[in-house]
Every structure is written in structure tokens, then in C-alpha cells.
Amino acid sequence: MIAALAACSANPVDAPPPTIVPAEAAASPPVTGNPAGSVVPLDVSARGAVFDPATRSLAVLGSGADGRSTLTVLAGTDQPRTVLLPAPATAITGDGHGTLYLSIRGGYLRFDVAHAETTRFDIEGGRDADFTAIARRADGRLVLGSADGAVYTLRSDTAVGAELAAFAHVDSVVTQGDIAIVLDRAQTSVTTIDPSGTKVGQALRAGEGATTIAADPRGRVLVADTRGDSLLVFGTDPLILRQRYPVRDAPYGLAGSAELAWVSQTAANTVIGYDLATGIPVEKVRYRTVRQPDLLAFDDSSGTLYVVSGSGAGVQVISNAAASRP
Fold first, then answer.
1. Residue range 203-230: average pLDDT?
2. What are the Cα distances from residue 44, in Å, to 67, 82, 313, 315?
3. What predicted TM-score, i.e. pTM, was given to this entire model?
């Protein structure tokens, strides 16, 4: 019996996927100049941010008391309002129409931005799942990823339509249409999942140590290769690496917009806007940022770039960010 088990475990098909130590953002140095735009104080350790066009609000997911999480909503010149969530949340996404979704252990939270109301949903059969990522497809279906490498595509608020276990760890999920794209830091890979949620489309290695991923309005997927000091630009149907461009100083934060792709340099407290219209990214603007610019979000209607510090240094607001500065 021992020999049989040993033979089985030696089967490459049954072996776990090869992994590396995941890359991380650089620990930013002290700020040496004034950040561009204005800075809204926010003393939280931020781990997610999303802009909601319907309410013209930025929502920042942060740490709270007793291991719980907070959600801070910033809308224009209004005073930021912070809500203590009923459970620790790991990731955030939105539908663009006033509703946010946050992954938690066993399910997710739905947050009504206008009314600051939170509803919890427990996934059927997923009570013990440690969900680490969440995204919403064009057809409205939610896709959740778990710490043990599974991706769940829901067919209702709580029912699982498909489950696919194909990863070492699901760190982030984004969507283009009804295709989900998974970032696995431990395998430094990006992988598409077909609309059925049951099949892997294509999978590609993403540099030397990919950390973050973002979808842009033009159908592209941006990936920060932090260890390899590069911006990677993928097409998704089929999955193909279209551009790879050197970005020094530990690129990490990402945001896609109609005009530019935004990348933060965590080792230099800087954010850069690149034009991807040609065959190679072209730098158009560069700004000093708050310390530890880990998270980016963009409002296409106003051209406002938000830079969220991962170390409690606040939220930087840069109006008309894509315009060239003298």
C-alpha cells in the first residue's frame, strides 16, 4: 500500500503546480516632495479600492477593529464616511451602478453605496472556503477565487454554477466580457476561464513575479511584474502577451482608463500614465505620490486619478490627470 501511494504521488498529473515565493510591493521610502493634486487623510491599511461611476464615489477597503474590515466611501468634497463591515473582507469589485461586492470567508458582502447598506451572502457548499478574490462578469454573474486555488462561478446570489480547481492560489480575478482572468502570484501566471466557468482557456507565465492585475475599457488586461520591473499588456480572446515594457522601481498599483494605463512605482512614490495605442507604451505623464502608492483607481468621466496609500498616508486625488503638465 505504501509503494502504491508513493507511485501515485509521483504522478506529475497529481502533483501540485510548481510555485515560487510570491512577489510583493516594495516598502516605499519617505516622501521627498509634495504629492500632486490634493490628499485626503485616511489612516487605514488599504487593501482594495474601486471607483463607482453611478455615485461618483471612491470606495477603499481597509483594516478595522477586532480583525474586521472597513469600507470608506469618498464622494467629491463630502466628508469621507467609514462603515465597519460585519466580516473580514479580502477583495472588492463593483458593478458600476452603485453596488459593490466584497469577498469574505464562505461567501461575499453586497454593499449599496448610496445607502451604506450591507447584505451578506453565504455560498452554497462554500461555507469553509477562504475566498480571496472577486469579480463581476458582463452578464452579472460573480466569480470568486479561493486560497486553495479554486474558482467559483455563481449562477444566482448563492448557488454555484461551476467550480474549477486549477491554481496554486487565486490572488486576483478580473473580467473582460464574460471571460474571467485569474492572477496566481505563486505561479506568476495569468489564465483565462471560459464563460461556462468549467474550462481553462489559455494560461501564460506573467514575467518573473506578477503581483497585480487590472482590466481596461479597451479590452486589455494589465499586469504588474513587480519582480521583473515590467508592465505586461495582454489581449484576452485569445490570451496573448501584446506588450512588455520596462518600468523600474517595483511597479505595483494599476488602473486602466480609456486614454492611459496607470502604473505606480512603490520604490519611488511615483505614478506614470502610459499611452498603449502604439506597439510600445509611451509615457505621457508622471506624478509624485503619497507614500506607498499600492492602489490606483480612475474616474473616466472626470479624468480623476486616485492613488491610495497602503501605509495609511491617505488618498491622493489628481484631477485631469491625463493632461500633460507644463
1. 97
2. 13, 11, 8, 10
3. 0.94
